Amino acid sequence: MKLVTWSLATFHATVFVLAIVLFAYSRDALGGGLSGLNTFVGLGLFVALWATTYVTTARALEGLDLIGSARDRRGYPRRALRWGAANGMSFLAILGIVALTAAVANTRPDQVASGILFPALFIAPIALVASAAVGAAVGALFGIIDLGLFALAGLTGEEAEGAL
Amino acid sequence: MRWTGGMELDPNVLHVAIRWLHVAAMATAFGGAVSVLALSTRPGVDSAGAVVAVAIRYEWIFWAAAGVLAMTGIGNLAAFGAALLGPATDWGATLLLKLGSVLALVILSLPRTLAVARMSASIGGNAHGSVTTLRNLYAATTAAFAVILALAIWLAHG
User: Fold this and answer.
1) Cα–Cα distance between B47 and B24 in angstroms, integer?
2) B99 vs chain A: nearest CA distance in angstroms?
3) Which of A87, A74, A79 is nearest to A155 (CA)?
4) Which ipTM score applies to this complex?
5) Assuming Cys at both sites, which of A106, A137, A153, B56 could form a disulfide with B114, CB separation 3.0 to 4.6 Å?
6) CB pairs under 8 A, 24+ apart, for B136-143?
């Protein structure tokens, strides 16, 4: 595990969630939304998002030296877009499994196939495409934000080349 | 732990556990920033490398604490449920200010981590300058944490 990967992954997961919470609360829509969420499920979803974000960030940074190479930093936003899409799909997959398990547990056995599994088969591909698009957009946005923050840390142009 | 019959956990116990974790993460992150600031205040040139090494350790812990704080902070808000006061109230305006401050601290902490990582790789060159930079970075972090803590205390007891 590398510090840059750990910090970037946690940064992405926490800023994403905090921005949503801040936006929802400023619109007075947070209380109702959170009250419908089981505490364990809420904590579990955050841990799941944190984990998928860590794995995808680690893959996005594979072979890149963001501290030492300006060329690697220039190539980073494209990878952020691609692995953002992967993160969106991974998180949706976990969300889908949790939702399906809960739905199956609360449905009469004779209605599971027609009422849960069959509709899920139709919805899953569309949901995966949508989650990939959202993930890619969020990843691209973070790629741009990260570049700005790299510059703020003094990692600009070629002068940082060979720092590590 | 108290159980309310069957296998169902008392929600109050869960909320106290989440709150405890939130406070512990805040204490770790804030206390760590104060420690690095104290270490970087008057170090000898020889100890500059040691201060940077401690700062690197702190950065690992800081990001773990940041994730735990975000997770448990939302858990704390969820405990209010529909009774959560709106943003138009004094309490709500303070909560908005706290959330905004936390978001700003997290965003501005990434350049700090990257700067410390960069420093760690090139500490031999300008040890004194590195320690001065560290002092400024952790003074700003400590000040931000102090503001957030004051807002949190006001929200809990104000």
Assistant:
1) 29
2) 6
3) A74
4) 0.88
5) A153
6) B137/B112, B138/B33, B138/B36, B138/B37, B138/B40, B138/B55, B139/B37, B140/B108, B141/B33, B141/B37, B141/B105, B141/B109, B141/B112, B142/B30, B142/B33, B142/B34, B142/B37
| End-to-end CA gap in chain A | 16
> What amino acid is encoded at A85 in this protein?
A
Contact A25 B92 (CB under 8 A): yes
Query: Which of A18, A49, A54, A164 should be substituted to probe chain B, the one whose Cβ sees the most B Cβ atoms within 10 Å?
Result: A18
Distance, in Å, from the CA atom of A129 to the CA atom of A37, rounded to the nearest integer, reads 25
Query: By three-state DSSP, how is residue B3 classified?
Result: strand
With CA atoms as reference, the chain A residue closest to B62 would be: A7
B129: contact with A, CB 8 A cutoff: no
Nearest to B141 by CA among B115, B118, B112, B116: B112
Whole-prediction pTM? 0.89
Please report where in the chains the tokens 């406070």 appear, as a residue.
B23
pLDDT tens-digit profile, chain A (164 residues): 699 999 999 999 999 999 999 999 999 888 777 777 777 888 889 999 999 999 999 999 999 888 888 888 888 999 999 999 999 999 999 999 988 888 888 888 888 777 888 888 889 999 999 999 999 999 999 999 999 999 998 887 654 444 33
Kindly identify which residue of chain B lies nearest to residue A145, measuring between CA atoms: B107
